[in-house]
Amino acid sequence: MSVTKQTIIETIEEELDFKPSKAKDTIEELIEIIKSTLASGEDIMISGFGKFEVNEKTPRKGRNPATGQDMMLKGRRVVTFKCAGKLRDRINNG
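The structure corresponding to this sequence follows.
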């Protein structure tokens, strides 16, 4: 099962005794900061959690799966995540 944004908001309400609107605003602002930082091309590093990196993909040859025709795919930016050692250890050791 995946954890949703609503689940995170409810957990913050309970754990930190926040009002529902404050918990929602906090998460929404955090997500907006992450999105705008990544959109500007900057990486985000959260100690003990990991690093979100923006990487450039160069144009490359591809193939249309429906027709089998060769085509050039445009260059683009993608976001990757590298897990911190502490998080990796916690995942692997329970």
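Residues 1-40 form one domain.
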